[in-house]
Structure formats: C-alpha cells, structure tokens
Known about the structure:
Elements: H1 36-45, H2 47-50, E1 51-53, E2 59-61, H3 69-112, H4 114-122, H5 127-164, H6 173-207
Antiparallel strand pairs: 1-2
Helix pairs in contact: 1-3, 3-6, 5-6
Amino acid sequence: MTSRGRFIAVIPDEYVEGLEILEEHLIVDTKEETTAKLEEKLATELNHLLVVEDEGGTTHNEYYRVSIRGTVIEEQNTMTAIMASICLYIAFVLISAVGTILAIQSLSDSTKYKYRYQTLRRLGVNDKSLFKTIRKQLLILFGVPVVYSILASFCMLASLNNVYKVLLANEFIYLFYFIGGLAIFFFVYGIYWIATYIGFKRNINEES
C-alpha cells in the first residue's frame, strides 16, 4: 500500500479506533477492463484535488496518486515487447552465425569427401536414395543444436516468468513469446538448411 512497506496488515476496526489516519486509499474493482484513457479522464476530472497550492504559492502536482491497472499493464506490455525485440535480435544474430558455420562445414564436406558419393553412384545407388541420405545427414547436423537451444530457451523463459509474472498481463504470456520465437527461429534456420541442401546437391552433381 505504501512505497516503503513490504507487507499489508489487516486489522479489525476495534483495534484502531482513535488512531490518526495518515493516508487513505480507495481501490475500485471495475466491471470492465481499464485503459490509459480512464486515467486521463480521472486526472482531468480530479484536477482540482490533484493539483495543490501551498501557503507559499508553490504548486504541487500529485497525479501519481491515481494508478490505473490498465495503464500499468500497457506499460509492462511495452517494456516486455522492447525486451523481446532485443532478445529476438540477439537470437537472430546467433542463428545466422550458427547457420553459416554449419552450412560452410557441410558444403566443405561435400567437396572434401566427393569420392564417397561417386563410389555410391558406381555401386548403383540412384539419385533419389542418395539425396534422401543427404537430407537425413543435414537434418541430424542441423537438428542437434536445435534440441539444446529449445530446452535452454524454455527453461530460461520459465525462470524469468516466475520472477516477473506479477508485472505481466498474463502469467502464461511467455508461452506466446516462446512459440513466436520458435516460429522465427525455424523460418531462418530452415532457409539455411534449404540453401545448404541445394548447394550440397550442386557440389555432388558437379563432381559427378
């Protein structure tokens, strides 16, 4: 209830009779969800109470005394979106780095071990089976890092949610960001995998 206190004590009226009131708080549970517009409306209509002039003629603005849940939620959503954007940018950089390294390594192997694929063709393995084997090989190479990254990101988000869920609009909103992040991750990662697969096939066909 106050900026200094860390707890709220609920005491029966009979035990506080005769004590001087230091502060009074009015808490209203509205029927509809509140928004920032309601705070602006209240600030306008309560201007004569929130702007006080002391004996010396100094004006004191006390708009901070009005707090609307909808405004707090909007502010937290904005902060969450900013943090999510920063994390997504960092993730994009890391995904690009990992995808580039794996692609270069795979294409290098396709040239370095070209004789293996030539030998398989000479043994009668058709292109369909050969390319199917290559797809499996690339899926394993690109898929192993994905498992660790998904598990690590989910554990990290779940831990952060346990700390900051009181400030969020919904305690399960982190799942939305997790799924959205995965969608972007697989989209970018998939582009690297497809480009690598096409380059891999081209190297084999050129060597053949």
